[in-house]
Design brief:
Elements (H helix, E strand, L loop, with lengths): L6 H6 L8 H5 L7 H4 L17 H5 L7 H4 L9
Length: 78
């Protein structure tokens, strides 16, 4: 499913909440990677908290590590 890149989803995004090891340990910026796609830094995988995110739940996503592997749309809506 395509996740809309809008302010409401960005505010609810957990990426930059201080709880995501992949985001924090790679010193990423931005967020809402499920809509925007992977981070240009090419981060190393640590742990993904996407399943805890209300955006992930609302759009019934099933994949992890959008910051590394690309948006839900790029990954076939997952």
């Amino acid at each position: 499913m395509n996740v809309p890149d809008n302010q409401d989803n960005y505010v609810r995004c957990l990426c930059y909440s201080g709880r995501c090891p992949t985001y924090d340990e790679n010193k990423l910026d931005g967020g809402l990677f499920c809509a925007r796609g992977k981070h240009p830094k090419n981060p190393q995988q640590k742990k993904c908290i996407c399943p805890d995110c209300s955006v992930w739940q609302q759009y019934q996503l099933s994949s992890l590590y959008y910051c590394i592997k690309g948006s839900a749309e790029e990954r076939g809506g997952k």
